[in-house]
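Attaching the record inline, Q. Sequence:
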Amino acid sequence: MARKAAPHRGIDVHYGDSDDGDDSRPSKTQLKEQSHALQKLGLEVSELSAERLAATPIPEALRDAILEFRRTKSHEGRRRQLQYVGKLMRNADEALLREAVASAKLGSAKDTLVLHDTERWRNDLIADDEALTHWMAAHPDTDRQQLRSLVRQARKDAAGLAPEARQPRSFRDLFQFLKPFLGVPGAAGDDAQADEAPDDE
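Structure, as predicted:
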């Protein structure tokens, strides 16, 4: 009669089999990292403009929590509310929200570049007559007389202006006038405002 093979001592080929399910579960550290990542995303979503937030499809409970977070002023209250936002984020479409945030950041970056370009043009026009020639060549549909009037007033106000002083109204009027030509978002409404600006003096 054949003997049964003795079990190998100290070795169990089945070790770890019952833990296969455990390996697929996130560790406490991973869960904590996921929680922090969702809170960070929730914070970025809360910083979207009211228009972008309204246009982003998210669960109403999450939208209400984000709006409450915006209203909360105390540090501790905001911390707790952000944790709640992060918890609700688990039921939201994370990819969609990341896309909304990325789109907003890209738009903001483009807007910032355009605003810097507008500021550069304004400074050049105030500093150098040659800039007016360059501007008219690039934007021939500009009302030259109005632009010259705005530049003249800005130069007058700039004379003797202390570096730390607040920019005079004429600087802002000139900036508003230039914006529509450089494609600043929402500048259509500003165009009318800029046209009326010199009459307010």
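The radius of gyration is 30 Å. DSSP finds ten helices and no strands in the chain.

More tomorrow.
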